[in-house]
Amino acid sequence: METPRLKVSERLREILSYDKFAGAAPRILILQSEYWVDGACIHACHELGWKVKTVPTVLEGVLPKENVARLIAALAEFRPDFVLTVNLSGMDVSGLFARFFEDVRVPYVTWFVDDPRTILMDRTDFASPYALALTWERTYAASLEAAGFPVVETVPLAADPHVFNREPWDVCDTPPSFVGNSMVSFANREWDLLKGTPELETAVRESFERGRVTRENFGKGLKTLLDPAYVETLDAEQRRHAEMLFFVEGTRRLRHALAAAVAPDGAIMRGDDGWRIDFPSSGGPIHYMQDLPGFYNRCEVNLNSTSIQMATTVNQRVFDCPAAGGFLLTDGQSVLEELFDTEREVAAYRSLDECRERLRFFRAHPKARVEIAACARRRVLGEHTYAHRLRRIAGIVKARFG
Fold first, then answer.
1. Nearby residues of 205 by Cβ (< 8 Å), 6 or more positions away
2. Helices (H), strands (E): how many in the chain?
């Protein structure tokens, strides 16, 4: 059976048969959803003086017909050097758009900032000679190559100085805090979805009980977390739900272990109501763009716990907090050494006991906090903004299609 494709008129082919990267500055068409990274990339394009145009898309569900028409019109009118999407947002589940971009010879880049395995679900429909896949976590590169992407590159997250950009100071009026979702509601939802398959639910619970759910094992895939022979009996949807549950429940446990360790020293949790179940003194949510920069700046010690889906890399907080002039105490992910001077720019811990010790030390030494925050901020603004990432991404695309 022939793979379905959008019908492309000769006139449209003619309109879109232009040279890529022929202008003085790159032209990027962003399929914009609700991901924070979309807005950060738009700000970065403006900062760089690049041409950028957006087409609204949806995180989940079917793209409305008017949006499809708007996408085709944007391609014809804007003539981008490449299309950028985060986590395949705006791309249909059958890969029809991927084949369309191939047919009209417009490169498209998808930047995965979450586990791509639960997004792709073993499908190879999104790969083509005109597709490039980026992943913020290098562990997933092999799965993206197996999905057929001819170009796979690791590109970490970054900071948006349009939002996070403040000088550090040593007068803090907010106690040590962790800002993030408790993951309670997400975990409960995934556990509920597994109730229809009690055998799988039991197998997942046993993996947690045996301590098999670690960042390293999660990165290797379900066959490391569950019996490989049993995984072969699961269909694609069951594998996706199992992996999602390992992600949200595993992350919930990591975050709650951190909270339990630091709460006796006066640390508070900020986020959703799920925190109040075990930590009644927790505060409410903090608006990411409007309030979080000031919160990071005023907080005595900003605590960090990396999600279970990141075996080696770092999360958004590692860049946002220093850019906002905040002091961060983070778990010691291996990629930290590639991004920062870990002697002068990072305060990290490798166990909860060490986290408690370092928390107490830095609370007693505000000057040390300010020095580290200032050094980290210089590094982030100098090397780790979304403008830096876009320059690299454009370079990757240009090397192949320019």
1. none
2. 18, 11
**CA–CA separation, 350 and 2 (whole Å):** 53
Which of 239, 247, 121, 277 lies closest to 187 in space, CA to CA?
Answer: 247
SS3 23: coil
Closest by CA to 326, choosing from 288, 372, 382, is 372
Task: Say if residues 110 and 88 touch (Cβ distance below 8 Å).
Answer: yes
Secondary structure element (H or E) that encloses residue 84, with its range: strand 82-86
pTM of the model: 0.94
> How far apart are alpha carbons 174 and 266 in whole angstroms?
11
Please give the biggest Cα pair distance in the chain.
70
Q: How far apart are CA 297 and CA 197, in angstroms?
A: 46
Using only C-alpha atoms, the chain has a radius of gyration, in whole angstroms, of 22
Which token pair is 37?
């990274």
The string of pLDDT tens digits covering residues 360-399 is 999 999 999 999 999 999 999 999 999 999 999 999 999 9
Closest C-alpha among 340, 334, 338 to residue 374: 340
Tell me the C-alpha to C-alpha distance, in Å, between residue 123 and each of 116, 117, 120, 144, 235. Answer: 11, 9, 5, 10, 13
| 108 in Cβ contact with 82 (< 8 Å) | yes
In sequence order, the β-bridge partners of residue 299 are 174
